[in-house]
């Protein structure tokens, strides 16, 4: 045994610290309850480390194995980990608050609260709006069905009783499987099957299906039995409820709650359209409807739906059996009895028995009684059943009507009506029908009795007014309707103004014109104050009635409006327009005579009166009307020009010249001078025409039309330099007239000065920027010179200035685009311009070129309907009809163009304003322009 002492019992060396060699030292924390052992000082640690390093022959390290830091670095290290609770410097006085600091904090807090209060309303409103928007986009389930829940309050007890029970679908597949396993049976394999399996390897040429004393199995019988068992199991699965539900019918993969009224709607729709209903759909519907009926045996509509399904499937006998069962299970269901009667109608005796049984169960069912009446074949039998029905249901208006209609003797009819109105005194229809079948002496008494029985009925008052009209007492109709209005207002049964207008239109349709007028006169101003826009409202009402084809009603409305606003030219024009299109010439002239008497200072009414008088064939009367208008509107140039037109149409050229001479002396205007120059030019007196133009230019140098007429006269005389000088003078005197620049450029082009013509158009474009006619003429100038690239450049710039010009788009599509690109460009043009008759013509011409004649005719029609005053549309339409139209269509177009009397369009004006075509009719101008169209 060694004499060495135990290490653990040896005293520790001086300054020994456990774990010091591993760098461990003692430390204390603030959470210690008592003082911890104080660790060695820094000097002790240095000394210990130095001794250990000397024993190892190494340099003396620092306390943590690194070289000592410099003094500055040590100071920074100490400042870096300084306690934030003992801050110095800038934050040294952070905890020294005084009263002023507290007051400042309180003031800032008050300001913050006040600002928050000011913004609170807007913030809350914004938050509420955001919340509402979120709830609107993300509604709760209960909100989505809120309206359906409210609608449940209107469900009657009978409807509640007809609702099927809710099926228990929980674990249905599992219960179905368990039920199937529970009802399944296990059978031992017979010896014959084993023997047959053993001999399966033998080669046989036939299989015997006969029994041989138990040694052979009849496989045909087994297959049939297997099929029968499978069918039974399928029927059981479809019709038998599970043990857990007890009452609920279950079917695999389908819901048991069936709407019997609407389920076979799709099948009915297929049957109506002639489409054959698939057998699978019928079988599926049969299963579901049978389930619904068995779930609720008192569900009448379910039986009806199932019966109709069987009828659709061709099983009428099954349908009748189902309805017979339904009549027993649902004896109070009217629908079931009605359907049973309908299905058995081919056998009247059975149908009558069913009807009698249904009536016995439901003696108040009017529908059953009406079906029973329809089953009778003779009038006497019908009356007998009807009287029985009335004994049970004396308040049924339908039964009274049937009985009265089946009665032929007029006296008996009157007696029945008397009994009916006594039983049903509130039936307006019975009272009115009673009055109609009665004589002229009895009818007023009956209507008075009806009015007393139903004081709020306006139909009775209308019938009374119509009765007066039928008796020839037209003067009393207005009084009857005035009394009606007063009585209805007193009783609180006055209908709305719109309803009265509707009743007036009904009377108008039934040719009770006087009654319609009396209704309008008494009620058209109902609830319209004097400060309201009554005139506008009445004009709108008349327009609507005219659109409905009720012209007498519209005439009555305008007549009343004229009586209230006798000095309104708008109302007079509306009345005259109605008579012109839907009245007689005599009525139109009477209206215009009253109009000019009430509005003698209306130029438009005088002109319209004179025109209609002239078109009526009364030339002398038209002259007298113009003479009266000269007295009322002295010096009016429009009256003079109209008088000149009349005389020219009558070929009284001397009288027309005389009128123009008087106008130039008493009512001299530039228009009068232009009209005079044009007339002289058309009559071939060029010297006089030039003299008038010069006189007019001296007085009105800025009138471009005088310069244009002067230049055109020189062109007619083949004096091109004088014409050019006249146009040039016009461009200087009237620089804002594009027509003069166009005429001047064409004269210069004819003279061979193309550069000069181009310069003239450029000057015109500078004076009149964004003018489509000048831009189009510049394009045409380049195109006529054969410079297509320059024309395309000018067109590009032109469309930049006038992107919505139909003239420019037409020029581009028809002359600067290839045939394959015309249709896309036309579509682009229509999108930008929207409605332009010229572009519609372009589209029609494109379809015409493609031989799509129906579409071409459609677009031509659109063009002439959109702008009947645009003559070029009529021209191209006529050119199209000449090649592909019928004689009937041509006659229609000629009639329409004569009525429209177009005035605009390049082709149209070029022909119409040519002096050679003076006195040509509209039809002649149309045909001549069609020949020039290219």
TrEMBL record:
Keyword Ribosomal protein on entry: no
The protein, known as: PRP1 splicing factor N-terminal domain-containing protein
Biased composition (Acidic residues): 73-86
Annotated ranges, domain PRP1 splicing factor N-terminal: 12-172
Organism domain of life: Eukaryota
Compositional bias annotation for Polar residues: 238-257
Record text on subunit structure and interactions: Associated with the spliceosome.
Organism encoding this protein: Massarina eburnea CBS 473.64
Alphabetized UniProt keyword annotations: mRNA processing, mRNA splicing, Nucleus, Repeat, TPR repeat
Alphabetical list of PANTHER family matching this protein: PRE-MRNA SPLICING FACTOR (PTHR11246), PRE-MRNA-PROCESSING FACTOR 6 (PTHR11246:SF1)
